[in-house]
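Worked example 3 (structure in, sequence out).
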């Protein structure tokens, strides 16, 4: 009998609690974060032993709000993925452009540091060495040529002087030979004249 009374009081108390909860407005709302909505539902729920009694309507609304938030997060995540893919493509394009610029810069530096010499790229230092070597050889050749020309001029003058002396000697020899020839001619004529006179 006491057991029946206890069950009766328990049912009566449970009906009053349910009636009071039915008269209360819904505790869950679309406002606030999901965490705040969970806290509000837990705060407004009734205790029964170690359990919490939550209104089905609040639980459904909380579930709907949670699902809406998850859907929003998924949409935002997808948008971020699209943006990330777009940014990734932009970064890849920029990296490719950077590689092209680096290659062009390297070629420009190489062209700046090299000189085309006989169709072959040569470094500026080697080119300078070749050019100064060539200039030095040409200058040495010019100096040797000048000395040779001076020597040749001196030799030419000496030869000219010698030729003048030889011409003078030859002229002198011709004159003496002519004189000798004339003298011999006269002597020969004298002898002829002597031979041609009649003897007395």
């Amino acid at each position: 009998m006491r057991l029946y009374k206890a069950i009766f009081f328990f049912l009566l108390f449970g009906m009053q609690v349910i009636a009071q909860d039915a008269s209360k407005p819904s505790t869950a709302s679309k406002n606030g974060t999901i965490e705040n909505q969970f806290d509000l539902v837990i705060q407004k729920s009734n205790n029964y032993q170690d359990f919490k009694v939550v209104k089905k309507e609040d639980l459904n609304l909380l579930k709907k709000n949670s699902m809406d938030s998850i859907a929003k997060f998924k949409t935002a995540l997808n948008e971020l993925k699209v943006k990330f893919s777009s940014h990734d493509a932009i970064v890849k394009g920029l990296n490719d452009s950077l590689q092209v610029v680096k290659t062009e810069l390297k070629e420009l530096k190489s062209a700046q540091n090299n000189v085309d010499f006989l169709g072959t790229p040569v470094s500026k230092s080697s080119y300078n060495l070749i050019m100064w070597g060539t200039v030095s050889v040409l200058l040495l050749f010019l100096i040797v040529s000048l000395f040779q020309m001076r020597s040749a001029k001196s030799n030419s003058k000496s030869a000219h002087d010698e030729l003048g002396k030889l011409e003078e000697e030859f002229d002198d020899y011709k004159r003496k030979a002519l004189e000798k020839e004339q003298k011999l001619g006269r002597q020969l004529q004298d002898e002829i004249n002597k031979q041609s006179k009649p003897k007395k």
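Notes: The longest strand covers residues 114-117. Confidence is low (pLDDT under 50) at residues 11-28.
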